[in-house]
Design goal:
Length: about 140
């Protein structure tokens, strides 16, 4: 008669293999969830920064052009990792965002655009950070 009170080596190896598979699946789910959460947070941060940029440009666009102190046109320009609003003669500079990669046109290489307060102006912005990008396309215009 056999002594059947213990666990055989085969049974122990089977339990360890099944446990290992379950642990790998659980870790994979947690890892995927953490990565997804990080990507979502990064995208929300880019979206908030893009909204802030658009609001600051809109405020500049809506300045009263009837005053002699406000020119009809202004520039939005990329200088390194900064996005600035300047006058046409590049005298006034206001940094509106910093720390991201900016693209002001769908084609690469354009580092400044001119917006005219007296007519509708199309605007494109792509803002990127940590391999995440957010794109804004809009038009600025005023009712006269």
């Amino acid at each position: 008669m056999k002594n059947e009170k213990g666990i055989t080596l085969v049974e122990l190896l089977a339990v360890l293999a099944i446990t290992g598979i379950i642990v790998v699946v659980i870790m994979s789910v947690f890892s995927t969830g953490a990565n997804s959460s990080e990507r979502t947070a990064s995208r929300q941060q880019l979206q908030q920064e893009a909204n802030l940029i658009v609001e600051q440009i809109r405020a500049s666009y809506l300045e009263n052009e009837k005053s002699d102190l406000v020119a009809e046109q202004f520039k939005v320009k990329v200088v390194g990792d900064e996005l600035k609003i300047t006058s046409i003669d590049n005298v006034e500079k206001k940094t509106i965002s910093t720390g991201y990669q900016y693209k002001l046109a769908e084609t690469a290489g354009i580092i400044e655009i001119t917006l005219d307060r007296t007519e509708p102006s199309r605007f494109y912005l792509e803002i990127c950070s940590n391999n995440q990008c957010f794109e804004v396309q809009m038009s600025f215009s005023k009712l006269n």
